[in-house]
Amino acid sequence: MREYETAFLITPKLEEEETENLIDKMAEVVKKKKGKMVNIERWGKKRLAYPIDSLDEAVYVFFHYEGSPDIPQELLRRFRQTETVIRYLTLKKETKIQQRKKTKLSRKGKPRSAKEKIEEEEKQTEEQMKESTEKPKEAEISEPEITTEEK
Asked: What CATH number is given to the structural domain containing 24?
């Protein structure tokens, strides 16, 4: 089962009961699709970074859950149908094992700092210079002497 985080913004025009009913309704989708709800974060009304549909505030809600990929698809479908949901975003979380593998792979072939990158480039240019000077010169081919045979 994969881990997901879904964030969505609800219009502040709704009453608290209606907002709670909407959140519960969306949480039921996870249960119906045989997912496991890990955590529901209700941040409440917060100021938006920029106005959306002439609104300056929204109710922020975050779902942390585990399940199959059809759960986020169903949530997104329901968000589109609900006019009171202003924005939504779903992210697939990575497990700790996947994160470790990525960091090891990224460090394996790449230098970690700009200084190391410059040093690596200098080494490569030095090796190229050595290879160009160490290459044996091609043997000069002399033209065969043409002799005339005397009879």
From this structure: 3.30.70.60
